[in-house]
Amino acid sequence: MKRLLALGLAGAFVASAQAHEPGGIHSEKTAKVEAAFDLVHTRVSKDGGMLVFEQLVDAKAGSRMPSPKGSFAGAEVYSYVWPTSLDAGSVGFEAGSGILALALTSHPDFDDTPQLDENADGKKDNDGGLWHSHWVVLTKDATCGPSGLKVRDIPEGAKPKLPPTWPGAPIYIDSPGYDLSVKDDAAQIRVPLKAVGFPETFNYDGVTAALQVNADLHDPLLCVSSVWDVASGDLSLPATWNAKD
Fold first, then answer.
1. pLDDT tens profile 139-185
2. How many CA atoms, within 13 angstroms, populate the side-chain half-sphere of residue 47?
3. What's the CA gap between 85 and 138, in Å, rounded?
4. Spatial separation of the C-alpha atoms in residues 84 and 144, rounded to whole Å
5. To 5 degrees, how large is the angle CA 103–CA 109–CA 113?
6. Tens digits of per-residue pLDDT, 223-233?
7. Measuring CA to CA, which residue among 140, 133, 132, 147 is closest to residue 209?
8. Nearest CA among 103, 107, 154, 114 for reference residue 128
9. pTM summary value
10. Domain boundaries defined on the chain
């Protein structure tokens, strides 16, 4: 699965020179990447019963968000993403269905967290522009341009296994409502260990990217449209989280 991800994005990302050291992936700054998405350190750590997924960038994290287009069709999604070696089944998707990735996203044209009222205004359908968490399952699709990747579609009539907080979109996406922080140079999501089945170990990487909703609203519905930076430089998922460390 790691090889699938690396091949799918080959040539589509801005490579970073890095040293794979304990505590995550350290990446070189690059002038070719907007500073808010220029990764300098990607890591996963443990804090009590929580896994803390974190990306440090060369500016204020989350300071750049998509401009509204006024419709779901063609809408853009900006994201900080942690691709992992965890099986999709560990968070409630169909087992073996693709690359499981945790994502911190912003998309002002639609709201896909129907259980949550992030801006506390009494409405649950108007805060997609605020940064929020998702699990997504990525698979290859040659029609998605240079990245060759999409969020896996759910064919009409299919009934795959999905997490209980699936937001209803016809793709493999979950809206778990995890605690998160976008502050100073750090983008962070806190995931309960129990939510991923208390893994003993897994590998991960870091990516900053844009996705786009298909203007025709059909398969593929949500493609990875631009990859800005990759922590490892080659999407090899070189960092390891180990419960024994």
1. 999 999 999 999 999 999 999 999 999 999 999 999 999 999 999 99
2. 11
3. 12
4. 21
5. 50
6. 999 999 999 99
7. 147
8. 107
9. 0.89
10. 2-64+73-233
Q: Which two structure tokens, joined as six digits, stand for 108?
A: 């002002």
**CB of 60 closer than 8 Å to CB of 189:** no
d(CA 245, CA 217): 45
Strands 179-183 and 186-192: antiparallel
Instruction: Enumerate long-range contacts of 1-5, CB under 8 Å, 24 or more apart.
Output: 1/85, 1/98, 1/99, 2/85, 2/203, 2/235, 2/236, 2/237, 4/99, 4/140, 5/83, 5/99, 5/138, 5/149, 5/235, 5/237
Cβ–Cβ under 8 Å, residues 171 and 221: yes
Type of residue numbered 91: V
List strands edge to edge, sheet with 179-183: 18-21, 24-27, 39-47, 50-57, 186-192, 179-183
SS3 195: helix
